[in-house]
Predict the 3D structure of the following.
Amino acid sequence: MMSAVRAPFRKLRFAVSGRAVLLAVAVAGAPSLAYAQAPAGGSSSTQPAKPAAKPKTDAKPDAKSGSKPTTKPDPKAAQRPREPVPMPLLGQQISYPSLDTPGGSGDIAYGAYQRGYYITAFNEALKRARAGNDPAAMTLLGELYSEGLGVPLDPKKAIEWYRKAADAGSPGALFALGNMTLAGRGVPLDEPAAAQLFKQAAEKGSAGAAYNLGLLYLQGRKIPKEPSEAARWFELAAAKDVEDAQYALGVLLKEGNGVEKDIAASARMMGAAARLGHITAEVEFAIMQFNGTGVAKDEAAAAALFRKAALAGNAIAQNRYARLLAVGRGVTQDKVQAAAWHLVAKNRGLGDPMLDEVVAKLPEPDRKKAQTQAARWESGRS
């Protein structure tokens, strides 16, 4: 029989705009909060692994040419550093691609930004910002300067434009100002000032700012530690489908930290975050489903969710899915697949003596098959 399982919670991270770096903060009062892999061994209490980061990128259309190459491609060319592409001077006449259909009412500046035409986005936004009080254009200019997209990276200029946009009523600009103040980019690092900016943005409807403000209250580093306030702001962000906020609120509800302990409500929050693709919440909710904690016991649903998180690279999910495969709980028993998943998790530092024994008892051909499958998964092949 497979024992009931649980897992401590991972570190929470600040929400950010654009491509800014995520800042990790631990849930106060939970020393086991860590991205570290679980220690080797067969203990049922393990730590969720840090989900693989998925950096946001802006898809840029490939240049197309009707002519064929006249020289044979050099196979080593891809390994050489590429020469930087000269950047058109700002303000000069450039022929831009058509981004909107004739007669359309789309935002050309943001449309260009989303397509990766940053020079176009800059010039269109600057034209609008100079023409009048346009907080959206000002916010976009701040973003471009903040990330160095189409213009030289300049946090101070980003701050100037964000402030103009904030003065014009933009909650997004307030949110961005809060993030830059929290990180000390373009301005001195000032956590209380960042909290005030997040509060202003949250009161204007910014879900990301509400979540960040909740983290600051939970952390209690430079502003008073108030878990009840953290829960209040998490709840506002969770209602707007911020999956990190749903996960964080689920943590507080499960532990009774700042709110009355409510396992069923915690399960609902974890389930909501899991449905939005929050990998750690998928693992937590699968554990709750498997054990029937706060939600109807459903081993098959738990197995499916473990598999989903395992495919996303979560070592805890890989280990738990391997255990289910090994004993046939919620899924058809398959010891070869169990061994393969165990080997993948073990390579990431998550050992399990029970599964080591499963591998050891496999016939040699099956053991080699599992090892081959694990190697294929590790190399990115199916």
Q: What stands out?
A: The CA atoms of residues 138 and 300 lie 50 Å apart. Residues 1-10, 18-104 have pLDDT under 50 and may be disordered. The chain has 16 helices and two strands.
